[in-house]
Amino acid sequence: MIGKKLQRYVAKTAAMVLAFTAFAGSAALAQQSTFNCLTPSRQATARIVGGQTTSYNQFPWQVSIGAKGRGTYDAHFCGGVLIGARWVVTAGHCVYAFGPLAEPDQLHVVHGISNLRSEQGATYDVERVIPHPNYANENIDRGNDIALIKLSQPVSANSAAYALLPQASIARNFVFPEACSVVTGWGTTRPGEPLPNDMQAVAMPIISNEECARAYANHGRPAPLDSDVCAGFLQGGIDSCQGDSGGPLVVEGGPKGYVLAGIVSRGGYDNPTGFWCALEEGYGIYTRVESFVPWIVQTIRDN
Fold first, then answer.
1. Do 108 and 139 belong to one domain?
2. Which of the residues 181, 245, 265, 291 is marked catalytic?
3. N or C: which end of the chain has fewer CB within 10 A?
4. Is 19 in contact with 37 (CB distance < 8 Å)?
5. What is the pLDDT of residues 54-98, one digit of tens each?
6. Which of 180, 66, 146, 176 is nearest to 113 (CA)?
């Protein structure tokens, strides 16, 4: 398991669903005119770090990364994003969850499930684990919190299940402040509670890095980097949390109907509750995928 301090600070989850119109795969997603982000005034009445379930059919790029040799529910510790038949992108800190860099035979990846206790879906062994060369696990605030996992065999899904990597032109058009984003995963929904069985999702706006930096400065925390993207509500209450690290932050747009804007990375600050999620002025910080597309493409070519 991820260490307690790293787990509570870094492992930001996508473990909550707001009133979010169900999609039926990427084709239906493309037909949506806008995501249903809650406005700040409505958000105040929403359930805190909790909500409705969603399904794999709506978010087919979502995978569970787990410790090999355990059942899917007990094994799960991070999310990931399917970007090709044998490639998953996740957070850098996820591949250091056991302390040193995880060996391929310590991990498995599960694709095609909505419920972690389900026997459906497919489990894949891992061939290679490749963190970004500039990721520093001892100080995640330095950024580059991204890694690639190569599967031992191709997934049994077509390319409609792969998340779209954002080229610069696409990112400029669709990943901007106030754009509505959606995060998915199996992370914590309430303080002290176990992970949910069912995949959860939350809709929230992208926040400018300047606003995000001002909020964190009030709590003595470092500003997000240019290679980060923030999302959430100023007054909190809606957020990602422990267990969804490495999972996808998507925004509507692009040729497939959505764009992979971010990877769940970190967020939160010390507070009396000890719970680092859904805090006022505690926006979620996500690795900005656009910044790492050249590294992703080159790494896949080389491996």
1. yes
2. 245
3. N
4. no
5. 788 888 999 999 999 888 889 999 999 999 999 999 999 999 999
6. 66
Q: Is 80 helix (H, G, I), strand (E, B) or coil?
A: strand
Enter the pTM of the model. 0.84
**pLDDT at residue 267 in the model:** 84
Distance CA 103, CA 302 (A): 19
Asked if residue 141 and residue 184 are part of one domain, the reply reads: no
Query: Could you read off the pLDDT of 134-183 as tens digits, one per residue?
Result: 999 888 999 999 999 999 999 999 898 999 999 888 888 889 999 989 89
Distance CA 11, CA 185 (A): 11
Residues 76 and 216 reside in one and the same domain:
no
The domain tally of the chain equals 2
Whether 228 sits among the annotated catalytic residues: the reply is no
Tell me: do 68 and 41 sit in the same domain.
Answer: no
Active site residue 108: no
Domain of 167, CATH number, reads 2.40.10.10
Determine contact, residues 203/261, Cβ cutoff 8 Å.
no
- Which residue in the list 93, 108, 111, 132 is annotated as catalytic? 93
Q: Are residues 167 and 47 in the same domain?
A: yes
Q: Is 105 a catalytic residue?
A: no
Output helix, strand, coil percentages for the chain, rounded to the nearest 5.
Answer: 20, 25, 50
Task: Report percent pLDDT > 70 for the chain.
Answer: 80
Domain that holds residue 29: 4-58+163-290
Q: Of the residues 145, 198, 228, 244, which is catalytic?
A: 145
Report the C-alpha gap between 55 and 4 in whole angstroms: 29
* Per-residue pLDDT at 215 exceeds 70: yes
